[in-house]
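Repro:
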Amino acid sequence: MEYFKLELYVPVDYAGKVKAALAAAGAGRIGNYDSCIWECPGVGQFRPQPGSSPFLGREGEVERVPENKLEMVVAADCLDAVLAALRTAHPYETPAFQFWPVNLGMEEK
């Protein structure tokens, strides 16, 4: 089976909601486990540009926000549903995320 690694950044207060939505869509399933998500805190920074509709901050001003970075694997057949769930559950107008193919390093049984 083909897998992708998904990484994203979410405001701390929304991390639980986003993790639940991603897990419900199939992210973080490894073998006989689900909801497998790595999470660590940090600070995100952005500046809303003209025409934006920011969840936080004001146009033209740099905003710094306590965020959590979430990392998880996603089976290829769930990727579209997981990305749709991410965009729906995430509070930002343009969520920051990336994904790429990975080898889990385990044999399927």
